[in-house]
């Protein structure tokens, strides 16, 4: 009896100890990963992702490729290792186009190990994800697709049944008509009243008889046509509300609205020139070399962003540009006739007019459209009421010139800009 | 009988008035004012330039583009060539040799502030802490529904108080004129080149403003 109880007691002891140990291990492990996550997010995400190549290589599998001690050394100061001639380090450095990884001399061994633990944890999750995650996503998507298809099928079937019923009735009616045709014609010829007996004919007859009503209807019709015609003629050449289909589904709502990218980040010409300018694709690539929107396309590159890559001949896998770029043919929305001169920088820089004053709430437009009419009247209306900002060297010179004139000094055309090339050669 | 007829006329009269009004209202309020077409145009040739616009297709050139690259080795008038290559050694050399030609003035700083706000703050944040709007969680609601947008990897902070290290050695708050200029010109890591968006003078103004942020 005693023996058994002592054996049981020992067993219980060992079990409880191992349980405690296990608990302690999992506890410490959980902490590691959490601290690692914080560190990873603050120090590493600028260049690294666990699952995909960003600036640096994808980190998944790094613990299989290198042992932990080596990794700790590498993460702390990779350049020192390269300089010391560590063959693995030199090879890795060269494989990644000699890109220098930031040295993190401020991190302790434990902290670096925490980061590694976090990467391993993420790696394990990512390894499960393709099986579980994408299947889930796929299931969710196919669920969506299924309901959509089922509803669509039901709709088609119902529509088909309705069409069949209608066609049947039409056929029956037509058969009746054919059967009665002869009789009907004869009857109609015999008695005209037969036709006038139909409701519509009766109504038409009553309508034609009522001269006032006829007059009123004609008046309404003329007024309507006149208004419609007047509007149409006034809007000849006015493209207000023009919203063409663009080659890329670019959303100003996302870029200027949600992302809060300044208008001039892309349309820098508005500061410097007559034209606000359409950004060249290298400006898109400033962000889209990293942003691929793959979260919404099952890990694949967004088809719209792929169009930018095609335009600049960029290979996202090697992160290299080819030499066969093809321009994106955006459709021009705002088109001032060539006989009117308009200068963006004069309005944006000198007058300080907000982009939205003329272009409307672009930051809410999913698709860009012309907000203002851009007619001469529209320009003039604004010019009549806008006060000039005279805090400007141009007006200093102007006032100076007037002072000289008042004093009776002579002034030549050259003194007031008569020698500027653009006065004649514009 | 006549009374009956009159009532009928009144009814049909009122009916047609209502119908006409409704029709007018419906037709005049059609759509949201947006259209895929430019509508009627009179003398379209007066809208189109005789010379080619830079963004127009052009069959006179092999690649079909009007805006051609200048021939290799040529410099536009007033163009300053940047004599440093895109490599770590050249970056370090720029850091040692390059100095801002601009004097620290109120105007230059104000310009630098405005330029930083337009071209840099979207990632680096208004205060250079690396917390610009695109580095944060955000979502959009549009015709495709509500969805979250990808966050851009946040750059390290410039501020002294954050003591963030640069990926090419040293602290972000100690980056010199030449190093910042080199980075604006070529870009680095996730940052692209901003040379096409900023003129040399503007780049120096931004550099000047970044130095202000480094002090924080």
Automatic annotation (TrEMBL), chain B:
Record keywords: Heme, Iron, Metal-binding, Signal
Biased composition (Basic and acidic residues): 130-147
Signal peptide (from-to): 1-24
InterPro entries: Cyt_c-like_dom (IPR009056), Cyt_c-like_dom_sf (IPR036909)
Keyword Cell membrane found: no
Stretches for region Disordered: 130-171
Organism this protein belongs to: Sphingobacterium griseoflavum
Domain Cytochrome c intervals: 107-214
Protein name: Cytochrome c
Gene that produces this protein: actE
Skewed-composition ranges (Polar residues): 158-168
Alphabetized Gene3D superfamilies for the sequence: Cytochrome c-like domain (1.10.760.10)
């Amino acid at each position: 009896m005693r023996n058994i109880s002592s054996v049981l007691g020992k067993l219980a002891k060992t079990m409880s100890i191992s349980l405690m140990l296990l608990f302690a291990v999992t506890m410490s492990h959980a902490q590691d990963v959490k601290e690692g996550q914080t560190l990873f997010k603050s120090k590493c995400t600028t260049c690294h992702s666990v699952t995909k190549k960003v600036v640096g290589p994808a980190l998944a599998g790094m613990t299989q490729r290198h042992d932990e001690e080596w990794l700790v050394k590498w993460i702390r100061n990779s350049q020192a290792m390269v300089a010391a001639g560590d063959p693995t380090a030199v090879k890795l450095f060269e494989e990644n186009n000699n890109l220098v990884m930031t040295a993190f001399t401020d991190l302790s061994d434990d902290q670096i190990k925490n980061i590694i633990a976090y990467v391993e944890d993420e790696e394990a999750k990512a390894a499960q994800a393709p099986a579980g995650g994408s299947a889930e996503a796929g299931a969710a998507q196919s669920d969506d697709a299924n309901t959509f298809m089922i509803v669509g099928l039901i709709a088609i079937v119902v529509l088909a049944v309705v069409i069949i019923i209608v066609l049947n009735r039409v056929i029956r009616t037509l058969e009746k008509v054919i059967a009665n045709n002869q009789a009907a014609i004869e009857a109609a010829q015999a008695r005209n009243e037969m036709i006038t007996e139909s409701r519509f004919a009766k109504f038409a007859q009553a309508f034609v008889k009522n001269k006032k009503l006829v007059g009123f209807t004609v008046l309404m019709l003329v007024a309507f046509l006149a208004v419609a015609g007047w509007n149409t003629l006034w809007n000849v050449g006015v493209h207000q509300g023009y919203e063409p289909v663009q080659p890329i589904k670019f959303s100003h709502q996302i870029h200027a609205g949600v992302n809060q990218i300044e208008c001039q980040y892309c349309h820098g010409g508005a500061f410097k020139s007559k034209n606000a300018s359409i950004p060249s694709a290298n400006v898109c690539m400033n962000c889209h070399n990293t942003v691929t929107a793959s979260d919404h396309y099952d890990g694949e590159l967004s088809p719209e962003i792929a169009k930018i890559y095609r335009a600049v001949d960029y290979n996202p896998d090697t992160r290299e540009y080819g030499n066969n770029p093809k321009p994106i043919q955006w459709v021009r929305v705002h088109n001032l006739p060539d006989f009117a001169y308009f200068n963006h920088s004069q309005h944006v820089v000198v007058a300080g007019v907000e982009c939205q004053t003329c272009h409307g709430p672009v930051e809410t437009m999913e698709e860009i459209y012309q907000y203002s009419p851009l007619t001469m009247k529209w320009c003039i209306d604004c010019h009549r009421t806008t006060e000039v900002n005279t805090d400007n060297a141009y007006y200093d010179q102007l006032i100076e010139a007037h002072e000289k004139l008042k004093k009776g000094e002579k002034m030549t055309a050259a003194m007031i800009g008569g020698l500027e090339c653009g006065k004649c050669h514009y | 009988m006549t009374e009956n007829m009159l009532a009928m006329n009144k009814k049909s009269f009122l009916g047609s008035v209502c119908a006409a009004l409704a029709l007018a209202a419906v037709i005049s309020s059609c759509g949201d004012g947006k259209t895929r077409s430019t509508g009627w145009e009179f003398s379209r040739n007066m809208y189109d330039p005789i010379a080619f616009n830079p963004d127009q297709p052009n069959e006179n050139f092999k690649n079909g583009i009007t805006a051609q690259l200048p021939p290799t080795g040529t410099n536009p008038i007033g163009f300053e060539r940047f004599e440093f290559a895109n490599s770590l050694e050249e970056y370090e050399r720029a850091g040692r040799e390059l100095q801002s030609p601009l004097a620290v003035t109120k105007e230059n700083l104000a310009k630098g502030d405005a330029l930083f706000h337009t071209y840099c703050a979207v990632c680096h944040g208004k205060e250079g802490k690396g917390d610009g709007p695109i580095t944060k969680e955000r979502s959009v609601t549009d015709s495709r529904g509500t969805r979250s947008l990808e966050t851009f990897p946040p750059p390290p902070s410039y501020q002294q108080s954050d003591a963030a290290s640069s990926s090419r050695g040293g602290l972000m708050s100690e980056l010199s004129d030449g190093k910042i200029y080199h980075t604006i010109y070529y870009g680095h890591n996730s940052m692209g080149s901003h040379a096409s968006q900023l003129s040399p003078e503007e780049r120096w103004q931004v550099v000047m403003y970044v130095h202000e942020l480094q002090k924080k």
